[in-house]
């Protein structure tokens, strides 16, 4: 049975010659293996439910369309059934958006469990704000916004200095973040940290949500940090 996604994960690199890596809270407790495919492959990212690439595929990010803003991705979360039956599969499409040099990414998915489940919209926005500053000394990354929920400041929002942590400038709730170190050039085996926040952490959004947040975060990280571009090759780290 697949449990909910861990609230905090970071990347560990074992093989210096591959782009693939592992996720866990500690180096001695690797929970997932992440496979990154060449840009010519439709399946860009695969998340394995265990520390090896032979373990069950838990989530897949697949390129299905290209826009000037970037690739549209289809994401499949494949969870084993809670009690018998068929695997629990949920699919969502992530669309890239762009204004000038600013990129963001949107998707919708069914959240909650049972009769209370319903569709909600989410948006990954770039950030250098308070939610990720504890992750690295000089951090940059993205925050995942629950578009139909107010943040802990009751939706007041405002500038970064005055608003509540976990709330956006327009008053929305932040439910996940990912971050890396801010550098001028791509770093060999770039560091990555991922964290669920607010209702993304409490389980209110259902057991699929954390995995959807994670696979979409990994895709954006591939495009924004590893430089897996639409018409180029991924950045290959050197020794």
From TrEMBL:
It comes from Daldinia eschscholtzii. The lineage of its organism: Eukaryota, Fungi, Dikarya, Ascomycota, Pezizomycotina. This is Uncharacterized protein.
């Amino acid at each position: 049975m697949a449990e909910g996604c861990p609230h905090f994960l970071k990347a560990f690199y074992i093989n210096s010659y591959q782009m693939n890596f592992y996720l866990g809270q500690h180096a001695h407790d690797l929970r997932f293996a992440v496979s990154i495919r060449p840009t010519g492959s439709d399946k860009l990212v695969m998340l394995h439910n265990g520390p090896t690439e032979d373990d069950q595929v838990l989530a897949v990010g697949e390129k299905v369309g290209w826009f000037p803003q970037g690739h549209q991705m289809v994401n499949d979360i494949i969870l084993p059934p809670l009690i018998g039956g068929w695997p629990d599969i949920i699919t969502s499409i992530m669309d890239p958006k762009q204004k000038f040099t600013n990129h963001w990414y949107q998707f919708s998915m069914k959240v909650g469990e049972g009769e209370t489940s319903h569709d909600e919209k989410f948006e990954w926005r770039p950030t250098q704000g308070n939610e990720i500053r504890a992750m690295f000394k000089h951090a940059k990354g993205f925050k995942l916004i629950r578009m139909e929920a107010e943040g802990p400041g009751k939706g007041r929002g405002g500038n970064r200095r005055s608003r509540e942590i976990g709330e956006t400038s327009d008053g929305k709730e932040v439910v996940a973040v990912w971050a890396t170190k801010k550098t001028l050039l791509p770093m060999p085996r770039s560091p990555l940290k991922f964290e669920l926040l607010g209702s993304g952490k409490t389980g209110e959004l259902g057991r699929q949500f954390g995995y959807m947040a994670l696979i979409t975060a990994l895709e954006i990280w591939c495009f924004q940090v590893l430089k897996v571009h639409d018409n180029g090759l991924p950045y290959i780290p050197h020794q």
